[in-house]
Amino acid sequence: MSDPKSGKKPQKLKARMPRGLADRGPAEIAATRAMVETIRKTFDLYGFEPVETPTFEYTDALGKFLPDQDRPNEGVFSFQDDDEQWISLRYDLTAPLARYVAENYQHLALPYRSYRNGYVYRNEKPGPGRFRQFMQFDADTVGSASMAADAEMCMLAADTMEALGIKRGDYVVKVNNRKLLDGLLDMIGLGGEANAGKRLTVLRAIDKLDRLGIAGVKELLGEGRKDESGDFTKGAGLNGDQVDVVLQFVSPTEPTANYKGDALLTLPDKFERTPLFNEGVKEIEEIRSLIEGAGYFPERVRIDQTVVRGLEYYTGPVYEVELTFEVKDEKGRPVRFGSVGGGGRYDGLVSRFMGQPVPATGFSIGVSRLQAALTALGKLPSKPEPGPVVVTIMDRDNVAAYQRMVSELRNAGIRTELYLGNPKNNVGQQLKYADKRSSPCAIIQGSDERTAGQVIIKDLILGAELAAENASDREDYLKKQAEAQFSVNEADLVAEVRKVLARHGRA
């Protein structure tokens, strides 16, 4: 139809998705449910309790920790409400928790131990495996300055990986301390507020070590780096000596069975240590002692001075969970998933609202990335949950009778739907629909069956197996054929459907 005013045909709206987002189907959603429930049980075991915070927060409550930009809508998705207040989509689950704790501080049992999961949003350049919306699952302890709280987060991370089916040796929890890194930067002349921006650039460069390697980090510590797409990222602008010191400190070391984090004590000896650096060494040694005493060190949790974590608000210990196994992609190429979670101590985040020190530490799992790894390992279901029983319609003048069957099955706790497609479709077309829905069985009742008080149950799973078989035993084939489609009294409908579901492990 044309527009009578312009004479032009109206343009059809193009269905398209914004970059950096993804649709999710039944199979993925079923896998997420299974995974999230396992994580929840592990966090419950540690005594954490659930809490939910909104998807939106005032932008100043989130803080300008991600990224280091001048405008409030850089790095986060932001808008102004009718009061002209800036509001942003949360970029993680930690900053909203800090606001929640500050707002409810007088009513919480301290230390406050909580967990939460949900989607977070980053207004960043999307790329392979890098999305603008992704799910996280966090646990936090607020109100404890003890290194035991940080050690516990590392042990929780390890236990969660194993609860999800990742065997020991296929993951490692790596621990470092931002005080070590900040102290190191003080040693090379990057102390003070005037160097805050440069320090953050250095930390973010180090944080990319596992992805870019030493050569890529060296470029980011210097003038900058051009990526494969041609985009240029400005570097920290360190001189040659400064770059050498940083790279010497963060160059990966291979831990051994008796590794005690000695590199942290000996590597920077030619520099004058700062009190902050020494404090970091003391804290990391305390964590090492705790995790070693609990039997997690060094096989499951180990010290690694390359760990940074990209968020600016970390103030002490930081930790990261890395998957160490390889899988093959669809083209047979080796793929490593790398980091699937992390966290650290953020003693200043809640304090911004309180005007008093409030120590806190937390751990976050990247659910979306970890799910991809678990699916590749075969640890999560790759198929959607079984479809519903489908009640077909043979007589359009008696739809109410079919609806009664549906209600009877649903009241018995059996997932069921009434065929609501094209009313002209015959039973064969309706059964094809049921097959596409992965239905275990379909219910059929024509006028003859209704008169006799009967219904036909068609076992679609067994029927598909029979169709694929090369029948050599006629007697066995006829027996299965009788089981694949049979008549029952209407009064026995629920019981007989349950038998079919039990036959296929779906009761």
From TrEMBL:
<dbReference type="InterPro" id="IPR036621">
    <property type="entry name" value="Anticodon-bd_dom_sf"/>
</dbReference>
<keyword id="KW-0547">Nucleotide-binding</keyword>
<feature type="binding site">
    <location>
        <position position="136"/>
    </location>
    <ligand>
        <name>L-histidine</name>
    </ligand>
</feature>
<feature type="binding site">
    <location>
        <position position="309"/>
    </location>
    <ligand>
        <name>L-histidine</name>
    </ligand>
</feature>
<keyword id="KW-0436">Ligase</keyword>
<dbReference type="InterPro" id="IPR045864">
    <property type="entry name" value="aa-tRNA-synth_II/BPL/LPL"/>
</dbReference>
<feature type="region of interest" description="Disordered">
    <location>
        <begin position="1"/>
        <end position="20"/>
    </location>
</feature>
<dbReference type="GO" id="GO:0006427">
    <property type="term" value="P:histidyl-tRNA aminoacylation"/>
</dbReference>
<dbReference type="InterPro" id="IPR015807">
    <property type="entry name" value="His-tRNA-ligase"/>
</dbReference>
<dbReference type="GO" id="GO:0005524">
    <property type="term" value="F:ATP binding"/>
</dbReference>
<protein>
    <recommendedName>
        <fullName>Histidine--tRNA ligase</fullName>
        <ecNumber>6.1.1.21</ecNumber>
    </recommendedName>
</protein>
<feature type="binding site">
    <location>
        <position position="122"/>
    </location>
    <ligand>
        <name>L-histidine</name>
    </ligand>
</feature>
<feature type="binding site">
    <location>
        <begin position="92"/>
        <end position="94"/>
    </location>
    <ligand>
        <name>L-histidine</name>
    </ligand>
</feature>
<dbReference type="InterPro" id="IPR004154">
    <property type="entry name" value="Anticodon-bd"/>
</dbReference>
<dbReference type="InterPro" id="IPR041715">
    <property type="entry name" value="HisRS-like_core"/>
</dbReference>
<dbReference type="InterPro" id="IPR006195">
    <property type="entry name" value="aa-tRNA-synth_II"/>
</dbReference>
<feature type="binding site">
    <location>
        <position position="140"/>
    </location>
    <ligand>
        <name>L-histidine</name>
    </ligand>
</feature>
<dbReference type="InterPro" id="IPR004516">
    <property type="entry name" value="HisRS/HisZ"/>
</dbReference>
<feature type="binding site">
    <location>
        <begin position="313"/>
        <end position="314"/>
    </location>
    <ligand>
        <name>L-histidine</name>
    </ligand>
</feature>
<keyword id="KW-0067">ATP-binding</keyword>
<keyword id="KW-0030">Aminoacyl-tRNA synthetase</keyword>
<dbReference type="Pfam" id="PF13393">
    <property type="entry name" value="tRNA-synt_His"/>
</dbReference>
<comment type="similarity">
    <text>Belongs to the class-II aminoacyl-tRNA synthetase family.</text>
</comment>
<dbReference type="GO" id="GO:0005737">
    <property type="term" value="C:cytoplasm"/>
</dbReference>
<keyword id="KW-0963">Cytoplasm</keyword>
<keyword id="KW-0648">Protein biosynthesis</keyword>
<feature type="domain" description="Aminoacyl-transfer RNA synthetases class-II family profile">
    <location>
        <begin position="35"/>
        <end position="384"/>
    </location>
</feature>
<feature type="compositionally biased region" description="Basic residues">
    <location>
        <begin position="7"/>
        <end position="17"/>
    </location>
</feature>
<comment type="subunit">
    <text>Homodimer.</text>
</comment>
<dbReference type="GO" id="GO:0004821">
    <property type="term" value="F:histidine-tRNA ligase activity"/>
</dbReference>
<dbReference type="Pfam" id="PF03129">
    <property type="entry name" value="HGTP_anticodon"/>
</dbReference>
